Amino acid sequence: MSKLTHLDHEGRASMVDVGRKEVTERIAVARGAVEMRPETLQLIIEGNIKKGDVMRVAELAGIMAGKKTSDLIPLCHPLPLNQIAVQCTPNPDQNRVDIEATARVSGKTGVEMEALTAVSVAALTIYDMAKAVDRSMSITGIQLAYKSGGKSGTYQA
Q1: Between vectors from CA 16 to CA 12 and to CA 18, what angle results, nearest 5°?
Q2: From CA 4, how far away is CA 33, in angstroms rounded?
Q3: What is the pLDDT of residues 109-120, one digit of tens each?
Q4: Is 112:134 a contact under the CB 8 Å cutoff?
Q5: Rounded Cα–Cα distance for residues 118 and 87 (Å)
Q6: What does the pLDDT look like over 73-96, one tens digit per residue?
Q7: In sequence order, what are the beta bridge partners of 147?
Q8: Which of 53, 71, 128, 134 is catalytic?
Q9: Known catalytic residue: 128?
Q10: How far apart are CA 40 and CA 47, in angstroms?
Q11: Residue 153 — left, alpha, or beta (φ > 0 → left; ψ -120 to 50 → alpha)?
Q12: Burial class for 45, CB neighbours closer than 10 Å (0-12, 13-18, 19+)
């Protein structure tokens, strides 16, 4: 069984020392969704939410959040991201907006948390922008879908 990497030998929180790790190209993809009433999704698709273009604002919020992950998650390393991209896609068949974030870095540690943070904040932004018409929305399924690079190799959900 693997041990937790953010605990020292006495069980205290500790930032992982990545100084001796090799720089590799690292990619992480995270996904999630915001489920809502069909009428709410239609308002979002038509651009009739009073606060503005919900999906474009959520994409921008996700990018901004991904860049600030180390400020939000205490033991994350600050990373010079090569790229972070967020895409929000309406899914009328499931009455939801699907969210996908891809983070890339050439570095000594992975970008999973940046991708997951981007999806999370994009989802929260959708909720915030549409809550006036639908407080029953549900943020769901946020997970790591893919990662590559580093010693642990590739992961595919």
Answers
A1: 165
A2: 29
A3: 889 999 999 999
A4: no
A5: 10
A6: 998 999 999 999 999 999 999 999
A7: 28, 155
A8: 128
A9: yes
A10: 11
A11: left
A12: middle
